[in-house]
Request: fold
Amino acid sequence: MLGPLDYLITALSFLAELYVVLCLCVSKKAIRYISLNFYMFAAAAATAGQVYTLQHFGIRSQMYGYVYYYTDALLTISLFFVIMSFYQQVFQQMGVGKYVRLASILLLSATALFSYLVVRRIPSHHLTNRFVVEMSQNLYFVGVVLTYLLWGAVVKLRETRTRLIQLVLALGIFFSSDAAGYALRNLYPSLEANFLKWVPPIAGTFLPLAWAYTFTKVSEDARLETARVTRRAPASTIAAHQHS
Amino acid sequence: MIAALICVVSIAALLQFFISYARSIIAAYGKSALSDQVREVAGISGDILHGEQFARLLQLVRLCPQKGDDQGDLSVVQSYYRLMGVFKALGRALSPTLSRWAEHERVNCVYFAAVALDRRIAYSRALLAQQMASQ
Reply:
């Protein structure tokens, strides 16, 4: 049975996802961020679907398990297209978009194949469930790697668009917390009941909230020196920024 | 083995993404200069800030009416400040460089809170002026 906190997190996530979709449509940026917009819409639809399944079949039902994990895997895959669109924005002037697309599709296929090969050896009737958990962990980890490489490119190319920087960093936080959560769940299944069960909903709420915040507060023209975000300033500069 | 590797790499990446995200927010506030008024209200003397001033500044920020656009920033920076507190404590035992860096980041958090307070005070004054004008 779900508690009030579960419903609060679900409602917050659902509202933030819809807000991002509306915000992008109203500001006429829906086409520029089409993959992000599609992801947010799909995430809102998936949240509604999960709540419907939960109400009709219960949290311990096989149906809810399938709906939860499979919509999650599909959403993660659609999030890869969001990463690709960010890559395209970062490498806009270098004209390497098609190579980025090709590399991402290859990586995605390799992940699915690797996950299948890992669980194929398990002689269990729970093969499909096991496959989904294993694949989710690997998909999130591929997301971490892709986002980390994207962040590396942002830093290396001295990208200054604050909005893009914050969108990418929020995505990195989402992917890495989920990947760590799934990996810990594989390592220590006993932690799931008290602690790890909160990781996916909190990370899933953080992402639309952070994006909603970025789209509302950070204008498209805002600029930020990447060095201010990444460099390790020496201790002697403690009060330096107060003079600048 | 693979799960352990994924776990370690993901936690390291999470830390780095979170630190960069918080710093991107703090950097946006770092462009503003502190007014004399906020220095007086917050008891900031001279140019030196200390990491310990953050809690007091945050209390003052919460006393001011909010404009509604900095609550998310405050939450993120507060979490970042706490994380830097942990790093500072770890640094004392492991590495003085880590400790110095964490203290520097805590000072940046203090500066962020002071700018947030400055903005809220300016907003409160504008609200008051608006009310006075309408009466």
The CA atoms of residues 84 and 238 of chain A lie 38 Å apart. Residues 233-244 of chain A have pLDDT under 50 and may be disordered. Chain A touches chain B at residues 118, 137-138, 140-141, 144, 147-148, 151, 162, 165-166, 169-170, 172-173, 175-177, 179-180, 182-184, 186-187, 209-210, 213, 217, 222, 224-225, 228-230, 232-233, 235, 237-239, 241-243 (CB under 8 Å). The longest helix of chain A spans residues 127-156.
